[in-house]
Amino acid sequence: METSSLSFNNGIKKLLLRDYAGAVTDFTRSIEEEPNNIATYNNRGFAKNKLNDTTDEIADYSKAIEIDPEDETALFNRGISKVRLRDYPGAITDLNRVIEISPQNSKAYYYRAISRDNTKIDTYDQQAMAVADILKALEINPDLQIPFINSDPERDWIHY
Prior knowledge:
160 residues; mainly alpha; Serine Threonine Protein Phosphatase 5, Tetratricopeptide repeat; 2 domains; elongated; disordered C terminus
């Protein structure tokens, strides 16, 4: 019988090979064997993201957050998924938590800026907060290359 460690490791290998459907299968097997492994939910969520299965992707990140409400990776990934779905208020909520947990996370400030800039509340205050977030992101990391929403942040999301 395959152990969850082996299933998890096989899932990671398949992620790195860009075999996302295979990774989902292996991570699902790992979850069946060890249902409270946060890294498995994060990685399966990432694989589902690459398969454009955003609803299930968010469900995996939410399960990881249910297990550990302080899991920065799951909160960040769910926030980014909500940005892609244009759920900007939900993204702001998740990214606020990421920033509380890890105030030096420049990418959280960047994506929160995107969310603030795109909310339906088109006010000077909202725009000013978005600019402040961009400036904070660059203060934390002056070399930050502002990523595009549709970029391939694969290595940033894989949680070993």
